[in-house]
Amino acid sequence: MIRSAFVLGSTSAVAAALCRALAEQGCRRFHLVARDANANERLAAELRVRYGAEISLEACDLFATASLDKPLRPSIDQSFDLYLITAGSLGDAEVARFDPAEALAITAANYNGLLPWLTAIVTSERIARPGRLWVFTSVAADRGRPSNYHYGAAKAALTTYCEGLLLRCQGQPFCVRILKAGFMATPMTLGKAPPLLCASPESVALDLLQRPDRRGIEYIPWWWAPLMWMVRLLPRHLASKL
Ligand SMILES: NC(=O)c1ccc[n+]([C@@H]2O[C@H](COP(=O)([O-])OP(=O)(O)OC[C@H]3O[C@@H](n4cnc5c(N)ncnc54)[C@H](OP(=O)(O)O)[C@@H]3O)[C@@H](O)[C@H]2O)c1
């Protein structure tokens, strides 16, 4: 049973759906970390009023936590049952082709900026006790594509890093779950993905909560696994059209 959750990127549509589904199942303590303080407060108010949950809030811009000039070392309460990382950004792939600032912003939101948080969560003491880390990466990590290779590269780095954490936690009570998501119907993909291929955040949340103690790498929804297997096998002249 998940009774408490730490959420980084809590204003994400998927995080909000997961928080509501967790609260329905009896989760009563949330720490919500997000960049948009107003949207975060709205989610907090909903969880307090509808479910009587105890909420703490924190502001965070991942571009700042990625900065080498002033590295942030967050200290994180180690008592949560679930640590959920949903922050991420597609950014502007066209701009990133010529503007390194945009390329770095995409990398910060999807990889670098998360490192201080992941480091603070996954300590030797914490992994010796039962708990869960769920990290959203993306099918974009599986193959570089002309349309989004900055995002895909950052998600690939995050996936590889988390796979290392997963293996470090093998045999420990702490479960690491890497979620390679395909299209989901959220503001991130609005107008950019065929609606028929988009899973709803609510269905993703319910699916994940069916096996809360799972560890490993999984595709969300599952059918992206065979699809990405084929995409990885595509010859270059076809992959260049993706
Ligand atoms: N939607 C999809 O089709 C899809 C597919 C594959 C993977 N994913 C991944 O799944 C996760 C959840 O996505 P979603 O669709 O729910 O996205 P979303 O609704 O657009 O939410 C993205 C979240 O990331 C936060 N964020 C972005 N840049 C940030 C920064 N520099 N500093 C702090 N927070 C930042 C956003 O905060 P603000 O509210 O302040 O912008 C928001 O909370 C993401 O990691 C995404 O990459 C999504």
Distance separating the two termini: 41 Å
CATH overall fold name: Rossmann fold
Question: How many beta-strand runs?
Answer: 7
CATH class categorisation: Alpha Beta
Distinct bound molecules: NADP nicotinamide-adenine-dinucleotide phosphate
CATH superfamily: NAD(P)-binding Rossmann-like Domain
Neighbour order of strands in the largest sheet: 3-2-1-4-5-6-7
What letter string, H or E per element, gives the SSE order?
EHEHEHEHHHHEHEHEHH
Strand content: 15-25%
Largest sheet: 7 strands, parallel
Structural class: alpha/beta
Note the total helix count: 11
Would you mind describing this structure in some detail?
With 242 residues, this protein is α/β, with parallel strands linked by helices. It has one domain (4-239): 3-Layer(aba) Sandwich (Rossmann fold), CATH 3.40.50.720. Helix content is 42%, strand content 17%. It has a 7-stranded parallel β-sheet with strand order 3-2-1-4-5-6-7, with helices on both faces. Helix 1 (13-24) links the parallel strand 1 and strand 2. Helix 1 (13-24) crosses helix 9 (201-210) and helix 5 packs parallel to helix 8. The longest helix has 20 residues, at 149-168. 38% of the residues are buried. The protein binds NADP nicotinamide-adenine-dinucleotide phosphate. The site of NADP nicotinamide-adenine-dinucleotide phosphate has 28 residues, from helix 1, helix 3, helix 5 and strand 5.
Topology, pairings included?
Elements lengths: L3 E5 L4 H12 L4 E6 L2 H15 L2 E6 L2 H4 L16 E4 L7 H4 L3 H11 L4 H7 L2 H4 L3 E8 L10 H20 L5 E8 L19 H10 L5 E5 L3 H10 L2 H4 L3
Parallel strand pairs: 1-2, 1-4, 2-3, 4-5, 5-6, 6-7
The structure holds NADP nicotinamide-adenine-dinucleotide phosphate (NAP).
The site of NADP nicotinamide-adenine-dinucleotide phosphate (NAP) has 28 residues, from helix 1, helix 3, helix 5 and strand 5.
